[in-house]
Amino acid sequence: MISNVAYDTQAHELALLLEIFHDEAARLTQEQWQMDFFSEEDAFAAFIKDDPLVDMACMEAAGDEGVALIERFREKYADAFLMVIADASVSPVKYIKPSIMPGSLLLRPAGAVQIRAVVGEFIRAYLQKTGRGLEENVFVVESREGRVRVPYGQISYFEAREKKIFVRAGRREFGFYDTMDHLCEVLPEEFIRCHRSFIINRKKIEKVVLSQSTVFMEEGLIVPISRSYRTRMRQA
Q1: How many domains does the chain have?
Q2: Where would I find the HTH LytTR-type domain in this sequence (predicted)?
Q3: Mean pLDDT of all residues belonging to the chain
Q4: Which of 73, 74, 119, 184 is 20 to 30 A from residue 211's alpha carbon, by CA?
């Protein structure tokens, strides 16, 4: 599954973007897509606050406030493939910079033909970018609903329960069938096992309290340490 989010205060343009994204996504990919499009900043901010997975984003650079919103988004989603929507009233210097790093640009005024061309190029560029070394950048969950690509940097832990493995990313979980032993073999080195039921991302650790057999992680998550993994966790 590919997750795409958009923020555009021009309702007609947003509706056109959504229609064209659906068309181009169906034409260019066989993936399942999740599309969340917003015309109001409060609704967009509430959506992002829940830490959804975001692979692609289209955001309006309307004045300094719009640029600042994109920069805040970028701080949270550094790996998302980004399209900036702007017009001549905003200097390119405002959004063509390292803190934003757009992968595509839609210049207003733009009609359906221009939007379709930009969106098609945007999707193709994303597919090309993620198609190279895909397994090195993301964990792929296979399910009946399709494939979900979870960037390793967003993963807090893997948990074994209910005869399945669940990967935790932000506030979302994705279940799949595997074994913890196999995951230990294939996951990048930043992932460490701390319990028979948990493999954690050491980059998400805030502190390890061995006296409590507990790992405190980002986002308020708490994970247990089992006795057999205490020595390993001293070095985490």
Answers
A1: 2
A2: 139-236
A3: 92
A4: 184
